[in-house]
Design goal:
heterotrimer; A: alpha+beta; 3-stranded antiparallel β-sheet; 6 strands; 25% helix; 20% strand; B: alpha+beta
Amino acid sequence: MATSSSTYRYFKNFFDGIYGLYLGFKLTLKYIFKPKVTELYPENKRVLPQRFRGRLAFLFSNKTGKMLCIGCGACSKVCPPQTIFMETHKEDKKLIVDKYEINIGECISCGNCVEVCPAGALEMTKEFETASFDQDTLFYDMNKLRKWVDEPNMYVPPLPEKPKK
Amino acid sequence: MTIEFKTDEMLLNMGPHHPSTHGVLRFIVKIDGETIKNVEPVIGYLHRSIERLGQDRNYFMYFSVVDRIDYISALGSEAPLALAGEKIGGIEVPERAEYLRVITLELTRIISHLLWLGSYLLDLGATTVIMYGFRDREKLLDFMEELSGQRMMFNYFRYGGVNNDVPDGWLERVDEFCDYFNKIIPDYEALINKNPIFLARTQNIGVIPKKLAIDYGVCGPILRASGVKYDIRKNEPYSIYDRFDFDIPVGKNGDCLDRYLVRMEEMRQSVKIIKQAIKQIPKGACLAKKINQTFKIPAGEAFCQVEAPRGNMGVYLISNGTNTPARVKFRTPSYANTQILPEVLRGLYISDIMAVMGSFDIIVPEIDR
Amino acid sequence: MNLIVELYTKLLNLIPLEPVKIVTNILIPTLAVIVVILFNVFILIWWERRLIAFIQVRLGPNRLGPAGLIQTFADALKVMLKEHIIPKNVNIILFALAPIVMFAPGLIVYTFIPMGQGFIVSDLKVGIFIILAIASLTTLGILMAGWASNNKYSLIGGMRVVAQAISYEIPLLLSMVGIILLTGSMSTVDIVEKQNIWNIITQPLAFLIFFICALAEVNRIPFDLPEAESELVSGFNTEYSGFMFASFFLAEYVNTFTLGALGATLFLGGWRFPLDFLLGDVGIQLTAQLGFLWFYIKAMFFFSMVIWVRGTLPRVRMDQLMGFAWKYLIPLVLLNIFVTGTVAAWFQGFFKV
């Protein structure tokens, strides 16, 4: 029997095909009895990791009772969709923040504002279910973004240690 | 005496809304019966002017915009930008940051290839492989979420290093995943490799000869499947890839089956690189200098290329000393790979459009950035 | 259940009038069969979604009702309340008739399949012949849908269906010839009663070929090119919405179950308990009381194998599909007939059970 004659190839294709099909069927039969990976949401919500970037929060300090923001405007300068809107006025060498508003519909949760803030006044919460039926309710102002914390949320970049003097 | 049938050609519009062109890509297909006479891809439905946005956004925040060029392997677009900026500014990246960059880049390669595998077989009709692929992908996305905070737009690279160090136990868990993944790849292969229907649909379909591939400038696994041994990680090594020991899979015929086999082998090699990197990673800092919105790069220009999962992803950066780039230009792999489609699809059947296009792994946002 | 049917026939046959006999013996049983089969479709859809989900490492519908049984009712209700969109320039007569032409033959076939001892609506001497003749009318419905939709995608889908159905009907018919040779008659009742050893053991090759051709007749993966979602956006179904789409969908399931019922009757022993001839006469009578249950289990087993194939294999291309039928299946089925005939002729005494 020549190894490249058409009858040989006809039968070889046939039996190779059957072997290939057998391997596939064996695998799917095995998977019918394996444990399933579906998570029953919303009964089981998964534990979110610590660095999860959800909705933004504007921090107020428990110790002083006032906001931690110093009004520098760095966060609005690094926001990629330019959705942070701040209004400040100067009162004897300090900036007081009148209005702080973001549009949750535009925010991409990148975390740039949290990294850049020199006072640690912003934090990414673990809330991600902020959908609503009306676009006007997606403008969150200072009251909706308020969160009370004990310590400012300073971002510590992974820099090399400074040599001791 | 022969009778000639006069048949008309039909124009079929596989329009922007289609379940299986991966994204909004439009094909104007001229068919005669079931044979294709000509295919014309029409692009531009997803143009978001990311390059023009680069001229208005400063260096620090541009990483979160660049993520969105190829959203499935986001770090493949962040890496060349970081490398180009570091080349102009002469910034030295610490060792640990280099190793973390390599680990995360190879993890995104596996993430992207698993998605490709699932959607390729979904186009061909097998609906189980995408579910298995997503089950494995969930574990990888959990790792990236613990590291950077999000599952898709990582915003992780910075000029001079990376954003954050690894959490506790992360490296051990990635090691365990590598062992698990090595055991699970034979499952995929048992289901697909010897399947006669899969072989009949992909063997000798969409053959790209070696010369044609080089002439058209295709890149990535398509080029390697056609027989050209070219991988930026070996030919023009960037970062610390010359310290690792891995192979480049090369195909023989350049058909769809070879492209599939090249990508499966690439996943195995990525796992090998990750395991070596985890063994060799040193302790130390992950960032050279603190970056914020006042970060400036001196005037200059540089072009850097990276082996993204789809091919050569390159960035040409022109800086002028301020904190905003003067011009950013992206060279994306899918844009170059789409050009060869009309040449390859001539003479095949309509059902083969899906097989060939799926094996090219084209992502439309990359074409139209 | 046998007792109910016997009582019913005995009582109503007391009225000697001929028209009443037609109503009670033919019309009402047919209606009962159709209603039962239509309710069965809900169970079929639920089972398909659960089993294919289990293969794909996930749970299927599990929210509505216990284990998701009411999900199908909810989906059917939703589909029926949708708006009927009829495109312009559509051939309205064909457009409206196509779902009916596809739906009806699948239901008519059930009157010729025995679902229990004496449970057949009409016992013809050429049962198999007429079953196949009627079951092949469904392709006409699909072609009508494809042509009347005034849409290139649907037309391509319709043409593919005709080519595929014609190619795969020949092996389907020929695979049954072996059984007819062994049984000696084309009547379905005779085939079941003479199957002491199930035909799947004496004709394994014919069972395999029947299975593959059944997949092709019903447009199931791996032969579901006419409604390939990734290529043609749902093929001949594209322009249908609302209840007409639901009827195509239901028709596909009814047809699959029909071929499953046919396969169970021909190959798996119909309504008989396995190896019931060893239990003696009393045993046969006892197990035959639950005849419908055994029949149902066997048809569902056939259906589960169809789902299993759907979960594993990709789609076959059009020319490869027809090449497979003409080059591989027809020689095999002819070989089967040849071998069956030879063996039956030599061991004639052995096969007279």
